[in-house]
Write a structure and sequence with these properties.
The model has no long low-confidence stretch (mean pLDDT about 95). With about 400 residues, this protein is an alpha/beta fold. Strand 6, helix 3 and strand 7 form a beta-alpha-beta unit. The longest helix has 15 residues. The protein is globular. Helix content is about 35%, strand content about 15%.
Protein backbone atom coordinates (compact mmCIF):
# COMPACT_ATOMS: atom_id res chain seq x y z
CA UNK A 1 0.00 0.00 0.00
CA UNK A 2 1.34 3.43 -0.93
CA UNK A 3 0.97 6.49 1.29
CA UNK A 4 -2.58 7.83 1.21
CA UNK A 5 -3.38 11.09 2.92
CA UNK A 6 -7.18 11.15 2.53
CA UNK A 7 -8.90 12.09 5.78
CA UNK A 8 -12.57 12.37 4.80
CA UNK A 9 -15.07 13.59 2.23
CA UNK A 10 -16.90 16.88 2.61
CA UNK A 11 -20.16 18.31 1.30
CA UNK A 12 -19.23 21.19 -0.98
CA UNK A 13 -22.19 23.23 0.22
CA UNK A 14 -22.43 22.63 3.97
CA UNK A 15 -19.02 21.24 4.94
CA UNK A 16 -20.61 18.16 6.50
CA UNK A 17 -18.06 15.35 6.69
CA UNK A 18 -18.38 11.79 5.38
CA UNK A 19 -16.03 8.84 6.04
CA UNK A 20 -13.44 7.92 3.44
CA UNK A 21 -13.18 4.34 2.15
CA UNK A 22 -16.94 3.94 1.66
CA UNK A 23 -19.17 4.24 -1.42
CA UNK A 24 -20.65 7.74 -1.75
CA UNK A 25 -22.57 9.61 -4.40
CA UNK A 26 -23.91 13.07 -3.58
CA UNK A 27 -24.12 14.45 -0.05
CA UNK A 28 -27.33 14.29 1.96
CA UNK A 29 -28.08 17.78 0.65
CA UNK A 30 -27.75 16.56 -2.95
CA UNK A 31 -24.45 18.37 -3.54
CA UNK A 32 -21.04 17.18 -4.77
CA UNK A 33 -18.63 15.68 -2.27
CA UNK A 34 -15.01 16.83 -2.18
CA UNK A 35 -12.08 14.67 -1.07
CA UNK A 36 -10.01 16.19 1.72
CA UNK A 37 -6.41 15.35 2.64
CA UNK A 38 -4.04 15.76 5.58
CA UNK A 39 -1.96 18.32 3.71
CA UNK A 40 0.39 18.95 6.63
CA UNK A 41 1.36 15.27 6.68
CA UNK A 42 1.59 15.24 2.89
CA UNK A 43 3.93 18.24 2.92
CA UNK A 44 6.13 16.49 5.50
CA UNK A 45 6.21 13.27 3.48
CA UNK A 46 6.71 14.56 -0.07
CA UNK A 47 8.81 17.27 -1.67
CA UNK A 48 8.57 18.73 -5.16
CA UNK A 49 11.85 17.18 -6.24
CA UNK A 50 10.49 13.72 -5.41
CA UNK A 51 8.46 13.95 -8.62
CA UNK A 52 11.53 14.33 -10.84
CA UNK A 53 12.08 10.64 -11.52
CA UNK A 54 8.44 9.72 -12.05
CA UNK A 55 7.18 9.10 -15.59
CA UNK A 56 3.68 7.69 -15.09
CA UNK A 57 1.54 10.59 -16.34
CA UNK A 58 -0.92 12.04 -13.86
CA UNK A 59 -0.37 9.11 -11.49
CA UNK A 60 2.92 10.87 -10.66
CA UNK A 61 0.80 12.91 -8.20
CA UNK A 62 -0.48 9.80 -6.44
CA UNK A 63 -0.04 11.23 -2.91
CA UNK A 64 -2.61 13.91 -3.83
CA UNK A 65 -5.03 11.24 -5.09
CA UNK A 66 -7.39 8.93 -3.19
CA UNK A 67 -6.41 5.47 -4.52
CA UNK A 68 -4.72 3.51 -1.74
CA UNK A 69 -3.70 0.25 -3.42
CA UNK A 70 -1.26 0.58 -6.37
CA UNK A 71 -2.89 -2.38 -8.13
CA UNK A 72 -6.14 -0.42 -8.31
CA UNK A 73 -4.62 2.39 -10.40
CA UNK A 74 -6.14 1.74 -13.82
CA UNK A 75 -3.85 3.05 -16.54
CA UNK A 76 -3.84 3.18 -20.34
CA UNK A 77 -0.43 4.83 -20.69
CA UNK A 78 -1.23 8.41 -19.69
CA UNK A 79 1.25 11.16 -20.55
CA UNK A 80 1.90 14.65 -19.25
CA UNK A 81 0.12 16.70 -21.91
CA UNK A 82 2.24 19.39 -23.61
CA UNK A 83 1.98 23.15 -23.47
CA UNK A 84 1.96 24.28 -27.10
CA UNK A 85 2.80 27.96 -27.76
CA UNK A 86 0.61 29.87 -30.19
CA UNK A 87 1.35 33.06 -32.05
CA UNK A 88 -0.34 36.18 -30.75
CA UNK A 89 -1.85 38.09 -33.68
CA UNK A 90 -2.47 41.83 -33.71
CA UNK A 91 0.79 42.71 -32.03
CA UNK A 92 0.19 40.91 -28.74
CA UNK A 93 3.24 40.92 -26.45
CA UNK A 94 2.07 38.27 -24.02
CA UNK A 95 2.51 34.52 -24.05
CA UNK A 96 -0.29 32.28 -25.29
CA UNK A 97 -0.11 28.56 -24.53
CA UNK A 98 -2.44 25.65 -25.19
CA UNK A 99 -2.53 22.66 -22.82
CA UNK A 100 -3.35 19.99 -25.37
CA UNK A 101 -5.39 17.32 -23.60
CA UNK A 102 -6.05 15.48 -26.86
CA UNK A 103 -2.80 13.55 -26.29
CA UNK A 104 -4.35 11.46 -23.48
CA UNK A 105 -5.84 7.96 -23.89
CA UNK A 106 -9.23 8.10 -25.67
CA UNK A 107 -8.17 11.48 -27.05
CA UNK A 108 -9.54 13.79 -24.37
CA UNK A 109 -9.18 15.17 -20.86
CA UNK A 110 -12.03 12.91 -19.77
CA UNK A 111 -9.37 10.21 -19.35
CA UNK A 112 -8.21 11.95 -16.18
CA UNK A 113 -11.54 11.96 -14.37
CA UNK A 114 -12.68 8.53 -15.49
CA UNK A 115 -9.36 6.89 -14.68
CA UNK A 116 -9.81 8.03 -11.09
CA UNK A 117 -13.52 7.21 -10.94
CA UNK A 118 -12.95 3.69 -12.29
CA UNK A 119 -9.91 3.12 -10.09
CA UNK A 120 -11.86 4.10 -6.98
CA UNK A 121 -14.83 2.00 -8.12
CA UNK A 122 -12.48 -0.98 -8.28
CA UNK A 123 -11.04 -0.19 -4.86
CA UNK A 124 -14.52 0.11 -3.38
CA UNK A 125 -15.75 -3.15 -4.94
CA UNK A 126 -18.13 -1.73 -7.56
CA UNK A 127 -18.68 -3.59 -10.83
CA UNK A 128 -21.39 -1.84 -12.89
CA UNK A 129 -21.00 1.81 -13.86
CA UNK A 130 -23.32 4.09 -15.82
CA UNK A 131 -23.26 7.67 -17.04
CA UNK A 132 -24.70 10.24 -19.46
CA UNK A 133 -22.28 11.79 -21.93
CA UNK A 134 -21.95 14.14 -24.88
CA UNK A 135 -19.27 11.77 -26.19
CA UNK A 136 -15.76 11.94 -24.77
CA UNK A 137 -16.56 11.00 -21.18
CA UNK A 138 -18.40 7.92 -22.39
CA UNK A 139 -15.38 6.87 -24.44
CA UNK A 140 -13.14 7.22 -21.39
CA UNK A 141 -15.54 5.26 -19.17
CA UNK A 142 -15.78 2.48 -21.77
CA UNK A 143 -12.01 2.21 -22.11
CA UNK A 144 -11.07 2.38 -18.44
CA UNK A 145 -14.06 0.26 -17.43
CA UNK A 146 -13.06 -2.47 -19.85
CA UNK A 147 -9.45 -2.23 -18.68
CA UNK A 148 -10.67 -2.79 -15.11
CA UNK A 149 -12.97 -5.68 -16.09
CA UNK A 150 -16.14 -3.75 -15.26
CA UNK A 151 -19.44 -3.37 -17.05
CA UNK A 152 -20.29 0.14 -18.23
CA UNK A 153 -23.51 1.56 -19.66
CA UNK A 154 -23.56 4.90 -21.46
CA UNK A 155 -26.46 7.13 -22.57
CA UNK A 156 -25.80 9.74 -25.28
CA UNK A 157 -27.90 12.47 -26.91
CA UNK A 158 -29.03 11.26 -30.33
CA UNK A 159 -26.88 13.86 -32.12
CA UNK A 160 -23.65 12.82 -30.38
CA UNK A 161 -20.86 12.65 -33.00
CA UNK A 162 -20.83 9.24 -34.65
CA UNK A 163 -17.15 8.72 -33.94
CA UNK A 164 -17.87 9.03 -30.21
CA UNK A 165 -20.74 6.59 -30.35
CA UNK A 166 -18.65 4.10 -32.29
CA UNK A 167 -15.63 4.27 -30.00
CA UNK A 168 -17.81 3.91 -26.88
CA UNK A 169 -19.47 0.80 -28.31
CA UNK A 170 -16.23 -0.67 -29.64
CA UNK A 171 -14.45 -0.23 -26.30
CA UNK A 172 -17.04 -2.31 -24.53
CA UNK A 173 -19.79 -0.11 -23.12
CA UNK A 174 -23.47 -0.80 -23.70
CA UNK A 175 -24.31 2.35 -25.65
CA UNK A 176 -27.75 3.94 -25.94
CA UNK A 177 -28.90 6.90 -28.05
CA UNK A 178 -31.44 9.17 -26.34
CA UNK A 179 -33.88 11.58 -27.94
CA UNK A 180 -32.88 14.51 -25.72
CA UNK A 181 -29.97 16.43 -24.18
CA UNK A 182 -27.36 15.30 -21.67
CA UNK A 183 -29.54 16.14 -18.67
CA UNK A 184 -32.26 13.88 -20.13
CA UNK A 185 -29.64 11.13 -20.33
CA UNK A 186 -28.68 11.86 -16.74
CA UNK A 187 -32.29 11.51 -15.61
CA UNK A 188 -32.46 8.03 -17.17
CA UNK A 189 -29.32 6.96 -15.33
CA UNK A 190 -30.63 8.38 -12.06
CA UNK A 191 -34.04 6.73 -12.39
CA UNK A 192 -32.74 3.29 -13.38
CA UNK A 193 -29.57 2.97 -11.30
CA UNK A 194 -31.12 1.24 -8.29
CA UNK A 195 -33.10 -1.24 -10.38
CA UNK A 196 -30.16 -2.05 -12.68
CA UNK A 197 -27.48 -2.09 -9.99
CA UNK A 198 -25.49 0.73 -11.63
CA UNK A 199 -23.24 3.15 -9.81
CA UNK A 200 -23.75 6.61 -11.29
CA UNK A 201 -20.46 8.23 -12.39
CA UNK A 202 -22.10 11.34 -13.84
CA UNK A 203 -20.21 14.63 -13.58
CA UNK A 204 -19.76 15.54 -9.88
CA UNK A 205 -22.29 12.91 -8.75
CA UNK A 206 -19.42 10.86 -7.36
CA UNK A 207 -16.38 12.34 -5.61
CA UNK A 208 -13.48 11.14 -7.73
CA UNK A 209 -13.71 12.46 -11.27
CA UNK A 210 -12.83 15.88 -9.87
CA UNK A 211 -9.69 14.36 -8.31
CA UNK A 212 -8.58 13.17 -11.73
CA UNK A 213 -9.34 16.48 -13.39
CA UNK A 214 -7.41 18.44 -10.77
CA UNK A 215 -4.22 16.82 -12.09
CA UNK A 216 -4.41 19.34 -14.95
CA UNK A 217 -3.58 21.98 -12.36
CA UNK A 218 -0.67 19.97 -10.93
CA UNK A 219 0.80 19.39 -14.37
CA UNK A 220 0.41 23.01 -15.39
CA UNK A 221 2.13 24.25 -12.23
CA UNK A 222 5.00 21.79 -12.59
CA UNK A 223 5.47 22.58 -16.29
CA UNK A 224 5.71 26.31 -15.50
CA UNK A 225 8.26 25.85 -12.72
CA UNK A 226 5.69 25.90 -9.90
CA UNK A 227 4.29 29.23 -11.00
CA UNK A 228 0.99 29.80 -12.74
CA UNK A 229 -0.16 31.93 -15.69
CA UNK A 230 -2.03 35.18 -15.33
CA UNK A 231 -5.19 33.75 -16.88
CA UNK A 232 -6.64 30.29 -17.61
CA UNK A 233 -9.51 29.95 -20.11
CA UNK A 234 -11.42 26.71 -19.72
CA UNK A 235 -14.29 25.33 -21.85
CA UNK A 236 -17.07 24.90 -19.31
CA UNK A 237 -19.96 22.48 -19.44
CA UNK A 238 -20.20 20.53 -16.19
CA UNK A 239 -17.12 22.43 -15.05
CA UNK A 240 -15.31 19.57 -13.29
CA UNK A 241 -11.94 20.61 -14.66
CA UNK A 242 -12.25 24.25 -13.65
CA UNK A 243 -13.39 23.28 -10.16
CA UNK A 244 -10.68 20.63 -9.96
CA UNK A 245 -7.87 22.97 -10.96
CA UNK A 246 -8.97 25.55 -8.40
CA UNK A 247 -8.90 22.77 -5.78
CA UNK A 248 -5.45 21.71 -6.99
CA UNK A 249 -4.08 25.23 -6.64
CA UNK A 250 -5.41 25.46 -3.09
CA UNK A 251 -3.77 22.14 -2.19
CA UNK A 252 -0.45 23.10 -3.79
CA UNK A 253 -0.46 26.41 -1.96
CA UNK A 254 -1.25 24.65 1.32
CA UNK A 255 1.79 22.36 0.99
CA UNK A 256 4.01 25.31 0.04
CA UNK A 257 4.78 24.26 -3.52
CA UNK A 258 3.34 27.22 -5.42
CA UNK A 259 5.13 30.49 -6.00
CA UNK A 260 3.42 33.74 -6.94
CA UNK A 261 -0.23 34.59 -7.40
CA UNK A 262 -3.07 32.37 -8.57
CA UNK A 263 -4.53 32.82 -12.08
CA UNK A 264 -7.82 34.40 -13.01
CA UNK A 265 -10.14 31.56 -14.03
CA UNK A 266 -12.35 32.19 -17.07
CA UNK A 267 -15.32 29.93 -17.78
CA UNK A 268 -15.94 29.78 -21.53
CA UNK A 269 -19.33 28.76 -22.92
CA UNK A 270 -21.19 28.99 -26.22
CA UNK A 271 -23.84 31.61 -26.94
CA UNK A 272 -26.36 28.81 -27.50
CA UNK A 273 -25.78 27.30 -24.04
CA UNK A 274 -24.43 29.76 -21.49
CA UNK A 275 -26.10 29.22 -18.09
CA UNK A 276 -22.90 29.98 -16.15
CA UNK A 277 -22.34 33.23 -18.04
CA UNK A 278 -25.90 34.35 -17.41
CA UNK A 279 -25.62 33.56 -13.68
CA UNK A 280 -22.22 35.25 -13.40
CA UNK A 281 -23.45 38.43 -15.03
CA UNK A 282 -26.57 38.46 -12.86
CA UNK A 283 -24.53 37.99 -9.66
CA UNK A 284 -26.32 34.72 -8.91
CA UNK A 285 -24.88 31.73 -7.03
CA UNK A 286 -26.74 29.11 -9.08
CA UNK A 287 -27.45 28.84 -12.79
CA UNK A 288 -30.99 27.88 -13.85
CA UNK A 289 -31.37 25.41 -16.71
CA UNK A 290 -30.72 26.86 -20.17
CA UNK A 291 -33.64 26.03 -22.43
CA UNK A 292 -33.13 25.16 -26.10
CA UNK A 293 -29.40 24.51 -25.74
CA UNK A 294 -27.51 24.28 -29.04
CA UNK A 295 -23.91 24.69 -30.18
CA UNK A 296 -21.35 23.08 -32.48
CA UNK A 297 -19.22 22.53 -29.36
CA UNK A 298 -21.15 19.53 -28.04
CA UNK A 299 -18.89 19.04 -25.04
CA UNK A 300 -20.02 22.32 -23.46
CA UNK A 301 -23.69 21.85 -24.29
CA UNK A 302 -24.71 21.27 -20.68
CA UNK A 303 -27.99 23.07 -19.89
CA UNK A 304 -27.70 22.66 -16.11
CA UNK A 305 -24.57 21.88 -14.07
CA UNK A 306 -24.89 20.35 -10.62
CA UNK A 307 -21.65 22.09 -9.65
CA UNK A 308 -22.79 25.50 -10.87
CA UNK A 309 -22.09 27.21 -7.54
CA UNK A 310 -18.59 25.70 -7.41
CA UNK A 311 -17.79 26.97 -10.91
CA UNK A 312 -19.07 30.44 -10.06
CA UNK A 313 -17.24 30.41 -6.73
CA UNK A 314 -13.91 29.57 -8.39
CA UNK A 315 -14.38 32.21 -11.08
CA UNK A 316 -15.23 34.93 -8.55
CA UNK A 317 -12.60 33.98 -5.95
CA UNK A 318 -9.93 34.13 -8.65
CA UNK A 319 -11.03 37.50 -10.00
CA UNK A 320 -11.96 35.92 -13.31
CA UNK A 321 -15.11 36.03 -15.40
CA UNK A 322 -17.47 33.97 -17.54
CA UNK A 323 -17.89 34.60 -21.25
CA UNK A 324 -19.69 33.05 -24.19
CA UNK A 325 -18.80 33.03 -27.88
CA UNK A 326 -20.79 32.33 -31.03
CA UNK A 327 -20.59 29.15 -33.08
CA UNK A 328 -19.29 31.25 -35.95
CA UNK A 329 -16.45 32.54 -33.76
CA UNK A 330 -15.66 28.98 -32.64
CA UNK A 331 -15.37 27.69 -36.20
CA UNK A 332 -13.37 30.73 -37.29
CA UNK A 333 -10.98 30.22 -34.36
CA UNK A 334 -10.51 26.56 -35.19
CA UNK A 335 -9.66 27.42 -38.78
CA UNK A 336 -7.32 30.28 -37.88
CA UNK A 337 -5.30 28.33 -35.30
CA UNK A 338 -4.99 25.34 -37.63
CA UNK A 339 -3.74 27.48 -40.50
CA UNK A 340 -1.61 29.90 -38.49
CA UNK A 341 -0.07 27.50 -35.96
CA UNK A 342 -0.72 23.99 -37.27
CA UNK A 343 -2.65 22.91 -34.14
CA UNK A 344 -6.01 21.23 -34.72
CA UNK A 345 -8.31 22.25 -31.87
CA UNK A 346 -11.59 20.63 -30.96
CA UNK A 347 -14.57 23.04 -31.06
CA UNK A 348 -14.53 23.42 -27.27
CA UNK A 349 -10.83 24.27 -27.33
CA UNK A 350 -11.42 26.70 -30.20
CA UNK A 351 -14.04 28.42 -28.03
CA UNK A 352 -11.30 29.34 -25.55
CA UNK A 353 -9.21 30.94 -28.33
CA UNK A 354 -12.24 32.90 -29.55
CA UNK A 355 -12.90 34.03 -25.96
CA UNK A 356 -9.25 35.04 -25.51
CA UNK A 357 -9.40 37.07 -28.72
CA UNK A 358 -12.57 38.87 -27.58
CA UNK A 359 -11.28 39.46 -24.04
CA UNK A 360 -7.99 40.94 -25.23
CA UNK A 361 -9.92 43.23 -27.57
CA UNK A 362 -12.11 44.60 -24.76
CA UNK A 363 -9.32 44.77 -22.17
CA UNK A 364 -10.39 42.03 -19.78
CA UNK A 365 -7.15 40.22 -20.60
CA UNK A 366 -4.01 42.32 -21.04
CA UNK A 367 -1.98 41.99 -24.23
CA UNK A 368 1.17 41.37 -22.15
CA UNK A 369 -0.28 38.62 -19.93
CA UNK A 370 0.62 34.92 -19.91
CA UNK A 371 -2.51 32.96 -20.84
CA UNK A 372 -3.24 29.22 -20.97
CA UNK A 373 -6.08 27.81 -23.05
CA UNK A 374 -7.33 24.27 -22.59
CA UNK A 375 -7.91 22.13 -25.67
CA UNK A 376 -9.94 19.34 -24.14
CA UNK A 377 -9.86 16.78 -26.99
CA UNK A 378 -8.21 15.92 -30.25
CA UNK A 379 -9.73 17.78 -33.18
CA UNK A 380 -9.76 14.53 -35.16
CA UNK A 381 -12.92 13.40 -33.34
CA UNK A 382 -15.03 16.15 -34.92
CA UNK A 383 -16.36 16.82 -38.43
CA UNK A 384 -13.62 18.14 -40.69
CA UNK A 385 -13.86 20.17 -43.93
CA UNK A 386 -14.51 18.25 -47.11
CA UNK A 387 -11.86 18.48 -49.81
CA UNK A 388 -13.35 19.07 -53.27
CA UNK A 389 -10.30 19.90 -55.38
CA UNK A 390 -9.42 17.09 -57.78
CA UNK A 391 -6.32 16.70 -59.91
CA UNK A 392 -6.36 14.44 -62.95
CA UNK A 393 -3.31 12.22 -63.19
CA UNK A 394 -1.51 12.39 -66.51
CA UNK A 395 -2.36 9.56 -68.89
CA UNK A 396 0.36 7.09 -69.91
Amino acid sequence: MSACYVTHLECSLTGRQYPAGEVHGLSAEGRPLLVRYDLDALAAGLERQDLAGRTDGFWRYREFLPVRQPENRISLGEVVTPLVPLSTPDGGRGELLVKDEGRLPTGSFKARGLALAVSMAKELGLHRLAMPTNGNAGAALAAYGSRAGMESVVFCPDDTPEVNLSEIELQGAVTWRVDGLIDDCGRIVRERSEEEGWFDVSTLKEPYRIEGKKTMGFELAEQLGWTLPDVILYPTGGGTGLIGMWKAFAELRAVGWLEGKLPRMVAVQADGCAPIVRAFEAGEEHAPRWEGAHTVAAGIRVPAAIGDFLILRAVRESGGFAVSVSDEAILDARREVARRDGLLLCPEGAATWAAWRAATADGRIGVDEKVVLFNCATGLKYPLPLVSRHYEAAAD
